[in-house]
Amino acid sequence: MSFEFDDYVLDEQRRELTLRGQPVAMGPQVFDLLLQLLNNRDRVMSRDELLVRVWNGKIVSESTITSHVNAVRKAIGDSGEEQRLLRTVARKGYRFVGQVRECSNREATVAAQPFTTRSGPDLPDKPSITVLPFQNLSGDPEQDYFADGMVEDIIAALSRIRWLFVIARNSSFTFKGQRIDVQQVGQALGVRYVLEGSVRKAGERLRITGQLIDATTGEHLWAERFEGRLDDLFELQDQVAESVVGAIAPQLERAEIERAKRKPTDSLCAYDYYLRGTAKLHNGTREAIDQALPLFYQAIERDPEFASAYGMAAWCYFWRKLNGWMLDRTEEIAEGARLARLAVELGRDDAVALTRGGHALGHLAGDLDGGIALLDRARLLNPNLAPAWYLGGILRALRGETQTAIDNLAHAARLSPLDPEMFRMQVGMALAHFFAGRLDEAVEWADKALGNLPSLLAAVALLAASHALSGRMDSARQAMARLRTLDPELRVSTLRQWLPIYRDTDLARLAEGLKLAGLPA
Questions:
Q1: What does residue 117 show for φ and ψ, rounded to 5 degrees?
Q2: At residue 264, does pLDDT exceed 70?
Q3: How far apart are CA 201 and CA 143, in angstroms?
Q4: CA distances, 151 to each of 136, 137, 187, 370 (Å)
Q5: Where is the domain boundary, 235, 259, 283?
Q6: pLDDT digits (tens, 9 = 90+) for 309-345
Q7: pLDDT-derived band of residue 439, with 50, 70 and 90 as boundaries?
Q8: I want to staple 393 with a disulfide (CB 3.0 to 4.6 A). Which of 10, 147, 405, 432 is the partner?
Q9: Which residues contact 342 (CB under 8 A, 6 or more apart)?
Q10: Residues 6+ apart with CB under 8 A from 180
């Protein structure tokens, strides 16, 4: 018996683990440990049970078990931080949580072969996708035009994402009406990802399903169902296209980040460094940003015209400024602004570069109007890019356009409801509601943001000011103690240097709340 997961095959009979056909070195007890976890993946295995099954009941130290678990994670491209495949269940044990397919040794031998015998073009050097014609399951041929139009909209929207290689409509539609194997389609078109779906009519309603598949492994990465009335077919078509693209773009990025993490560091290209830096940036902690910034510089060194890498590097400096982490404020602000300007100059048609670079300029150079204009252009280039909506919403909140900001932030959350940077949308909501005078709502959103990122200085400041202005002084003082721990240097007199707040009334409200909560003048 063999087990397939991700790009790995574990052959129990040969006692061999392979990654895309290449053997992975691991000790015999590490192999036994992985085999036990795969065989019992439907439940948690305790340390005591592992001692009996892997070490035959011998007495070994806790550190021995831990080191072997870490060795398993290293062998399968996982880590204790991610726990993507092997999860630690506190005080209970361990469980393998990745998707696994059991197969015969003959099947495994075929699966273990390196993916080199492609019948079509080689995979491009960036993520690649084709959108197949959606199946019309309605029994109504008149619905074909609706399904085809929706797929064409999805292809057009995906084509706006500059880091994505998208197969043109004319090629993908050659598969219309055929019974297809997704992996064969991937080989024929030279793509890693395939999006397929179906449309079904039920009375006056349409049900649309979509699923994203890794064509190299057959693994399902994402699936969703959408429903709507037939009253306005074209509006429904637009809504589904927007929702599909907004949902799968983060899934594609996550899949590519995981792929980059599994590469050895001596074979990384500019895009791999960019992906690794992006994964760190999503985290938002001080340590993660300190690790992300040099990765973006590495990407820039390998590709001096990589606009998005400049934008992300600039954004790291903005995040350091916002959270009080800068060591040399003047020098770092200047460097961040330099990188941001390069991002928007090199990336005039790159929505990601305009989004991150424009937002960084809004903060680091204090140019809210210029930053908003750049983010508006990014949204025109890619209307489905969630960061363009929520970072634009934050700049509009600072500009005093609170209702527009709330609308933008809500739209971003709808586009990317599982976004790893959801805490940014939440603190944006807190800021907009605070400036709109809705203090209870500001507290609610700030609490949500801090639940996702406890070190978020802006959320703590809004919490302290909102409680103080609402007369909840005990809560305000508790929040202020937390704020002073996060940034002992922040003062009422330096608030405008910290946040580029446009309206004097908004600045005065924040200053009054923080002063009442105990922030020094």
A1: -90, 60
A2: no
A3: 8
A4: 12, 15, 21, 35
A5: 259
A6: 999 999 999 999 999 999 999 999 999 999 999 999 9
A7: very high
A8: 405
A9: 307, 310, 357
A10: 132
Pull the structure tokens for residue 481.
């103690």
CA distances from 492 to 93, 117, 140, 488, 497 (A): 49, 65, 66, 12, 10
86: helix, coil or strand?
strand
Q: Where are the alpha helices (DSSP H) in 192-232?
A: none
Average pLDDT over residues 358-374: 95
C-beta separation of 129 from 195 below 8 A: yes
Instruction: Report the predicted TM-score, pTM, of the whole model to 2 decimal places.
Output: 0.62
The two tokens of residue 113 are: 């072969």
Residue 109 has pLDDT above 50, yes or no: no
Closest CA to 254 of 275, 238, 272: 275
CA-closest candidate to residue 492, choices 465, 455, 456:
465
Determine the structural domain holding residue 219 and report its residue range.
128-259
What percentage of the chain's residues is helix, strand, coil (to nearest 5)? 60, 10, 30
Q: What is the pLDDT of residue 86?
A: 92
Pair of tokens at residue 333: 């602000």
pLDDT at 315: 95
The answer to whether 383 and 375 are in contact (CB under 8 A) is no
User: Which pair of structure tokens corresponds to residue 93?
Assistant: 């044990």
Closest CA to 339 of 371, 312, 373, 375: 312
- Examine the domain organization and report whether 425 and 490 are in the same domain: yes
Q: Are residues 255 and 274 in the same domain?
A: no
What does the pLDDT look like over 384-436, one tens digit per residue? 788 999 999 999 999 999 999 999 999 888 777 767 789 999 999 999 999 99
Work out the average pLDDT over 176-187.
81
325 with 365, same domain?
Answer: yes
d(CA 162, CA 188): 23
Kindly report the three-state secondary structure assignment for every residue of 260-304: HHCCCHHHCCHHHHHHHHHHHHHHCCHHHHHHHHHHHHHHHHHCC
Count: domains in the chain:
4
Mean pLDDT along residues 368-380: 94
Dihedral pair phi/psi, residue 136, rounded to 5°: -90, 105
The span from the CA of 491 to the CA of 520, in Å, is 5
287 and 361 share one domain: yes
CATH of the domain at 43: 1.10.10.10
Question: Which of 4-18, 156-170, 268-282, 495-509 is modeled with the greatest confidence?
Answer: 495-509
3-state secondary structure of 207: strand
Out of 230, 259, 288, a domain closes at 259
Q: What are phi and psi of 212, to 5 degrees?
A: -105, 130
CB-count exposure of residue 168 (10 Å: 0-12, 13-18, 19+) = exposed
Q: What is the C-alpha separation between 191 and 7, in angstroms, rounded?
A: 16
Q: For residues 86 and 256, what is the distance between their CA atoms, to the nearest angstrom? A: 19
